[in-house]
Amino acid sequence: MNKKTVRDVDVQGKRVLMRVDFNVPLKDGNVTDDNRIQAALPSINYLLEQGAALILCSHLGRPKGKVVSELKMDPVAERLSEYIKRPVKKMDDCVGPEVETAVQAMKPGDVILLENTRFHPEEKANDPEFAQKMASLAELYVNDAFGAAHRAHASNVGVAEYLPTVAGLLMEKELKFLGQVVQNPERPYVAILGGAKISDKIGVIESLLEQCDRLLIGGGMANTFFKAMGFETGDSLVEEDAVPTARSLLEDFGGRLVLPVDVVIADAFDNDANAKVVAPNEVNAGWRILDVGPKTIDTFESALGAAKTVVWNGPLGVFEMPNFAKGTFAIAERLANKDALTVIGGGDSAAAVRQANLANQMSHVSTGGGASLEFLEGKTLPGIAVIDDAD
Length: 391
What we know:
The protein is an alpha/beta fold. A six-stranded parallel beta sheet has the order 5-6-4-1-7-8. The chain has 14 helices and 17 strands.
């Protein structure tokens, strides 16, 4: 992935449009988790130090092409301003005369944050005219939004048609670590997949099974494999449609797949429900699997023992409930203390390692769940494809 980055261009005195991923959770008009804002700071600070006038754009939530007051970028602008210790001028739109006037008046070191790009239906449609209007604001385009790189939208793909395009420092970091895993992993290479569903991860499961030495499966997706093995799964989450796929994966790759050998079951989906540890073929009606058991933690830790490369996407249980977080946190702890390349693939697994206060002990925690999965699957991500190749 040899792409041009912000370090390869002169930005002094130039207006730079940068796509960031400020899709952060809001509650009562306040940002409740600013990890994505913090992740963009190296690129923002670098460009400002180099004398750029910086125009930032991002989507926020799913407003479906309409203006939704709860999804305006004002709280984001406030939080960003605190971090960079300078004013951030927040616009009421991302295109139009007011934006153009404000941009023309910018000086080096100024920062403008455009309004939520998804307030316009043209954003998701990757409308060329809309993209051209956004591109006309600047002389250079920087894509630092890895979390949106798997979407072909106007603000991260369309604008690249009209401007020289380089990667930001976060995008560069994501490509470095994920690229290493895909192209040249040091072996043994072990992958861990959890989360609820197999259906949206079939491609990545097949791809990983061809690349890695062992694939550890936990979370809700393990239940579908249990069903494929003929086990009763009680009230556990199972994707009936994916059972035949799970069966064929077991037939083709059984030696590389490592499934839980014991599970924690509960008689309700509740932290305070009655719970016990059983074998996967001992789940009775009225009970549901909510975590991996202690023997599975030992089995998984043993499989990780000699690994030099580990990729993890998706929790191993319902980690939002403390009583069913043990498996997820135990594996996070194991990886944090491991001498290996450890890459956490965004989404819930990133949230879990942060909740366990172990994010800083991983080699890399990706900012894009969906994007990292597609990258690991070997897909071409549109937001990366449009970045200019390095010479």
